[in-house]
Design brief:
heterodimer, A: 231 residues, mainly alpha, MetI-like fold, 10 helices, elongated, B: 252 residues, 0% strand, MetI-like (chain A)
Chain lengths: 231, 252
């Protein structure tokens, strides 16, 4: 099909023209692009969920035990210095060349941000609020779910936004184990010097990050209606 | 878990350390890249950030540049620079193939943490200290060099540390677009299904990253004019206050 098109008039993504922006390419390879996009979103969401699920108990435990807190924070500071391209190979012996490698790797990065954000958020709850709740007869569990977590939410959500945006960007590196979502298109685009593919994937990555950020801002507004007047 | 044994053997084999594509050559290449990019970014970004913080303008830009930097995938930017006609993938002196494209990408990704931290550092100098300096009759230049800069230095240094980590990570990713550096050992290993080589490369990259981070942390402590200060945001590893905002891996 490409041959037919180029016979009539070289399409804007043919080897000879090789334009950066080419709608024809997006039109012709729609299926491939959407597949990559969906894989990208799936990996990002899975990594973020993993990060959140692990960060919650870790943060709650770390809050109770100071020794554990410095251990958790030290570990996350160390983990975050390891480049993503080095972290993924280190996970391969355990998970193989599978999406799980990328999800776990990125989940760990997200975890380092989320644990700190949760701890910061819980620390931002004023002591007199806690005392008032205790005076009203709130137990530990009810205090956590009804008082502390809602008040920690703005700070925790700020952390989640940072984690989400950087996870979208980092997913591209997953192309090392061939599960990089849009990163696979970028990688292929570099190897074949295919500019339209490269540019399309890069732009989609940034758009995806911005969209996810907007979604999280809206979620935060809905979950914390009391913060709106304060700003 | 045979892979671990193979990785160990790969690391112990002296042949893998010498020669053109060996660990030593690649490591020097990446260290050279990292140092050049970091110094260039500091020369470009720090004066701007410190000046913006000093006059108290452009705060929105200075703080948000980090958020934008985080949203752009390092891999995508590197790929775009290499695929472009300029700087392209041509050899660039000791920096190797696609050296110039890699350097530009590294500088661009080092700038956001430097600018954000530089600006925030200057703004966080207590107002009463500035007033005291003015009251003592210090000129603006004296106030900047003798009061603001020394007090801002720890936070500026933490920005440099973040930038260093960022540059090292990005320099590793340069290998995904056939650039120079240690990442090449990882990507070559994966391309040839030699996972022991990939693992060995990753181990070296991670270890050097930790060493650099520790060195930077030591340096940061050394420039602190008030080392015993209990203030949480003046401490390094537990820089909790600014942690969630600034200490996140940007897209690398």
């Amino acid at each position: 099909m490409t041959l037919l098109v180029s016979a009539a008039e070289p399409s804007c993504y043919s080897r000879f023209v090789n334009e950066w922006f080419c709608w024809q390419y997006v039109d012709d390879r729609r299926g491939q692009i959407i597949d990559a996009l969906l894989e990208h979103v799936a990996i990002t969401v899975a990594a973020l969920l993993l990060g959140v699920l692990l960060a919650f108990p870790l943060a709650l435990l770390a809050r109770r035990h100071t020794r554990l807190e410095s251990m958790v924070l030290g570990f996350s500071a160390g983990l975050y210095t390891i480049p993503s391209l080095a972290l993924l190979p280190l996970l391969v012996p355990f998970t193989g060349l599978a999406p799980a490698t990328v999800v776990i790797g990125l989940g760990l990065y997200a975890l380092t941000i989320l644990v700190r954000a949760l701890l910061d958020g819980l620390r931002s709850v004023p002591d007199d609020v806690r005392e008032a709740a205790r005076g009203l007869g709130y137990g530990r569990a009810r205090m956590l779910t009804r008082i502390e977590l809602p008040l920690a939410l703005p700070v925790a959500m700020a952390g989640l936004r940072v984690a989400a945006v950087s996870t979208i960007a980092l997913t591209t590196v997953g192309t090392l184990v061939s599960y990089g979502g849009l990163g696979d298109l970028i990688s292929h685009g570099v190897q074949r010097d295919f500019r339209a593919e490269l540019m399309t994937a890069a732009v989609l990555c940034v758009v995806l990050a911005l969209l996810l950020d907007v979604v999280l801002v809206v979620v935060q507004r809905v979950l914390t209606p009391w913060t709106q007047g304060a700003r | 878990m045979e892979l671990f044994a193979e990785t160990w053997h790969y690391l112990l084999d002296a042949d893998n350390w010498s020669g053109g594509g060996g660990f030593v050559a690649r490591l020097l290449e990446q260290l050279l890249l990292t140092a050049t990019a970091l110094v260039a970014a500091m020369l470009l970004g720090l004066p701007l950030a410190l000046w913006l913080g000093h006059v108290g303008r452009g705060g929105f830009l200075a703080v948000n540049v980090s958020n934008v930097g985080r949203a752009v995938p390092t891999f995508a930017l590197l790929a775009l620079l290499v695929a472009a006609d300029w700087p392209g993938s041509a050899d660039f002196g000791p920096y190797g193939r696609a050296g110039l494209a890699t350097l530009i990408a590294l500088v661009l990704f080092a700038l956001p943490p430097l600018i954000t931290n530089g600006y925030v550092a200057m703004r966080e100098v207590p107002k009463d200290v500035l007033e005291a300096a003015d009251g003592m009759g210090m000129s603006e230049g004296q106030r900047f060099w003798r009061v603001e800069l020394p007090l801002a230095l720890p936070v500026v240094a933490s920005g440099v540390r973040l930038a260093l980590v960022q540059v090292w990570a990005t320099a590793t990713i340069a290998a995904l677009v056939a650039g120079p550096g240690l990442g090449r050992i990882i990507t070559e290993g994966f391309a040839r299904n030699d996972y022991a080589q990939g693992m060995a490369g990753a181990v070296v990259v991670a270890l050097v990253a930790l060493v650099l981070e520790l060195a930077a942390a030591t340096l940061q402590r050394a420039v602190d004019p008030m080392p015993q200060s209990p203030s949480p945001d003046r401490d390094d590893a537990l820089s909790v206050r600014s942690a969630t905002v600034t200490e996140a891996p940007t897209g690398g």
